[in-house]
Design goal:
Elements: E1 3-8, H1 17-30, E2 35-40, H2 42-45, H3 52-69, E3 76-80, H4 86-95, H5 100-104, H6 107-116, H7 123-138, E4 143-145, H8 151-168, E5 176-178, H9 213-221, H10 239-252, H11 256-262, H12 268-294, H13 297-326
Parallel strand pairs: 1-2, 2-3, 4-5
Helix pairs in contact: 3-12, 4-7, 4-13, 7-8, 9-12, 10-12
Bound molecules: adenosine-5'-tetraphosphate (AQP).
Amino acid sequence: VPRALSGIQPTAGSFHLGNYLGAVRQYVALQDTHDAFYMVVDLHAITVPQDPVELRANTRTAAAQLLAAGLDPDRCTLFIQSHVPEHAQLAWVMNCITGFGEASRMTQFKDKSAKQGADRATVGLFTYPILQVADILLYQADAVPVGEDQRQHIELTRDLAERFNGRFGQTFTAPVPYIVKEVAKIYDLQDPGAKMSKSAANPKGLVNLLDDPKVSAKKFRSAVTDTDTVIRYDEKDKPGVSNLLRIHSALTGTGIPELERQYEGKGYGALKTDLAEIFVEWVTPFHDRTREYLDDPETLDSVLAKGAEKARSVAAETLAAAYDRIGFVPAK
Ligand code: AQP
């Protein structure tokens, strides 16, 4: 059975719709076809400042949302990254075979450090992609379900896996990104040229799954479209409408050509109002399920403990192999 691995950051109190459609939904689907490992990446989260109380709460909330979205602890391994120390250990090794220039070319670092100001960006933020490389290689993952913004990091993972294997002998599987084109990039509702992101300039463009559904419905109803009136999929000339059509299609399973037919002769208002309703109907049970997991911390913690144990057994084996190839003396 092929392996899948992915991680999501606990950097906000809620996942947003881009996280869900671009990544989490694929996590759920891959449970059926892959030996799947999913983690809440708290080590990644601290590459930018975090309040300790919030980080702890957000990490649990992230795990609860993953379960609410449909991850089944009997069919996948769900854990918290910091529970498996091998991530930090292999990351160090990978840091030591990564070129400084190579790491400097990562566009996410460039964007995020530019936003923060170069003096405030940490070395951790710079080496974030290399920690991600370690995350993936530890599990010998074949497929990594992610959104389009992560493609470059998966390419780096392949490069470093091949470099290590070439230098020290076959050790790691080189993974491929698992990116579903239709939902690879969900755009901001107010700025359809930008990816929906938790650091959105305008909060009205960002749909958080755990926000009050009424608030989210309003965001859909006031989404930016264009001055034309025709509902047609056209990424270039109608990015706002196309984004709404993609979201509609992803949530209802209706193909985009069929949606174009359904909305023929109707205005943007109809599309937005429908989408608001569809979203609320989908998200309401998601809230309830998330709340149930959060209200039962014993069950949640036991799922995460079991997940960490299973993850560690796989990760420890890979790390031992890597240490051995490098020439470290085995600890007795
Ligand atoms: N807009 C998006 N469309 C599709 N996929 C997306 N992802 C994120 N945004 C979109 C995917 O979600 C997964 C988890 O991402 P993450 O843990 O890196 O989350 P994040 O970085 O906190 O999400 P943001 O909002 O993108 O954060 P900032 O604002 O910090 O950049 C990944 O698979 C990602 O591709």
